[in-house]
Amino acid sequence: MLTGTCAPVSPSTSYPIVIGGGGTQAQGTPSTGIGFTAVGGGVGAASGSGVGVTGGPGGSGGGAGSSGNCTPAPGTGGSGTPGQGNSGGSTNNLTRSGGGGGGAGAAGTLATLNFTGSPGGAGAVSSLSGSPVTYAGGGGGGGRDGAGSGGPGGGGAGKRSTQGAANPGTVNTGGGAGGGWDTGGAGANGGSGIAILKTNSASVSVFTASGVWSLSEQYNFKKAGDWS
User: Fold this and answer.
1) CA-based, 20 to 30 A from 95: which of 9, 49, 176, 212?
2) Rounded Cα–Cα distance for residues 4 and 76 (Å)
3) β 133-135/17-18 pair status
């Protein structure tokens, strides 16, 4: 999740913006525009055979997978991108389940319970839309006996072997997908991203004003730090 970025723009000029899609058992595609790139989320690791499996890197990292055999080996959560997200949750040598995916606001949770997936990391709050909204929560890990919950901000819950499919990330949030259990099905799709643009009010006035400014307008803009 990329926030707080600023760039100069010109009136009557088109600026292409590409909204990345959520990955289908793969890293999500990036969102780009006005010279910025929000990296897609990392893919969660599947169960391996004899070794723990590392989650994929991304804007936030994917959760780790367990070794998936009778002698579990730890796996490592995927790394997040500095300034955009956090790492995925790892697994220890006692678990046979998946770590939670990283969120924009917190890392994915370490899987510590046998056969139980761990929760995804929480997303981050933005008020650019006019009200506080949480985006880019991590997906929960899958497990045979219990699945991890999705992180706040569009993260999907994982899959338990006796349940249906894992839950996808919520569209237009960049939320991570829930992980699957190796004998019950694959993980779900990540949520697509979103771009929210906010134009500086002073810049709009400069572009549209006739060139005559009242004293009160000058005072208010100067006080707000928007006068140039």
Assistant:
1) 176
2) 30
3) unpaired
Q: Give per-residue pLDDT as tens, 138-158.
A: 998 888 888 889 999 888 888
Please give the full DSSP string across the chain, using - where no structure is assigned: ---S------TT----EEPPPPPBSSPPPPEEETTEEEPPPPPPPPP-SSS-BPPPPSSSPPPPB---SSS---B-PPPPPTTT--PPP-B-TT--SPPPPP-SSSPPPPB-STTB--PPPP-EEE-TTSS-EEE-PPPPPPBSSB-PPPPTTTPPP--BTTS-SPPPPPTTTTPPPPPPPTTT----BPPP--------HHHHHHHH--S---HHHHHHHHHHT---
Q: Left if phi > 0, otherwise alpha if psi is -120 to 50, otherwise beta: which for 25? A: left
Cα–Cα distance between 98 and 180 in angstroms, integer? 8
CA angle 181, 184, 186 (to 5 degrees): 65
pTM assigned to the model: 0.79
Mind listing the pLDDT tens digit for each residue in 62-74? 888 876 666 667 7
Q: Where are the domains of the chain?
A: 1-197, 201-228
The separation between the first and the last C-alpha atoms of the chain, rounded to the nearest angstrom, is 31
Write down how long the chain is: 228
Spatial separation of the C-alpha atoms in residues 64 and 79, rounded to whole Å: 11
